[in-house]
Amino acid sequence: MGLRELEDRLRQLPGNLPRAPEQPLRRWAQTHHEGGLSVAFINVVDKVLDTGRACSTWGLQFGLACCAIEMMAVGASRYDLDRFGVFFRGSPRQADAMLVAGTLTLKMADVLRRLYDQMPEPRYVIAVGNCAISGGRFYHHAYSVVRGVDRVVPVDIYVPGCPPRPESFIDAIRKLHQLMRRESIADTIGHGERQHEDFFRKRELP
What predicted TM-score, i.e. pTM, was given to this entire model? Predict the structure, then answer.
C-alpha cells in the first residue's frame, strides 16, 4: 500500500469513529464571549483550566524507534518528568498529548491516526526526532516510511535531533505548557474541526 492509498484510507476513518462528547461550558463561552461580565468569567475559567491542564499533562507514549529510548530516559528518575506534572498513560482516552518518537512506517500510520482520534479534545502532538519530523536522513527515501508525522496527524511541537537529548524533550514539554496557558474555552478547537486533507503536506510522495 502506497502513501496515496493510505491518505485515502485515513480520510475515511473519522466517519466510522465515535465523536468526542460535547462540552457545554465551551459552547456557552463561544456564544457569550462579549460583554464585561461574560469576559471576566471566561478569563477566570481560562486561568483555572489552563493552569490545571499545564500542571497535570498526561502523555501517550508512541515509541517507534531509537528516539523512544530517550523518551523513556526523560521519564525516569534522572530527568524526572513528574516534577513538571507530566505522567505517561497507557490509554489514549486518558491522554492530553501524544509523544511520537521514531520512524513512522505506512503500516503504523493507521494505528497512529486511530489512537489520535480516540484522544479527547483539546489534544496535542509532539514529534520527537528527525525521523518523526521528516522521515530522517537514513529512511527519507524508503518506500515504507512516512516522511513526517504531520502527514497523518497535526503536530504542535517539533523536537529535532538524531536522537534529541532529554533536555530538548523537557524544553518541548515547557513549550507545550506555554501553549496550553494561552488557550481559551471561547476558542474553536482547531484539530477536531479541520478537514483531514489539510494534515498532509503538498510535497513529493514516495
Answer: 0.73
Report in angstroms the alpha-carbon separations of 134 from 11, 101, 104, 128. 21, 12, 10, 11
Q: Which residues of 177-189 are buried (b: 16+ CB within 10 A; e: fewer)?
A: beebeeebbbeeb
Q: What's the structural domain count of the chain?
A: 1
d(CA 70, CA 26): 37
CA gap 46, 27 in Å, rounded: 14
ω into 122 cis (within 30 of 0) = yes
Q: For the chain, what percent of residues have pLDDT higher than 70? A: 70
Q: From CA 137, how far away is CA 125, in angstroms rounded?
A: 22
Q: Is residue 163 part of a domain?
A: yes
Q: With respect to residue 205, please indicate whether it lies within any of the assigned structural domains.
A: no
Find the CATH number of the domain harbouring 49: 3.40.50.12280
Query: For residue 63, which phi and psi values (nearest 5 degrees)?
Result: -85, 130
Question: Any bridge partners for residue 61, and if so which?
Answer: 99
For the stretch 67-94, pLDDT in tens is 888 888 888 888 888 888 888 888 888 8
Provide the domain limits for residue 145.
3-16+23-199
With b for 16 or more beta-carbon neighbours within 10 A and e for fewer, the 151-170 pattern comes to bbbbbbbbbeeebbebebbb
Residue 78 lies in a domain: yes
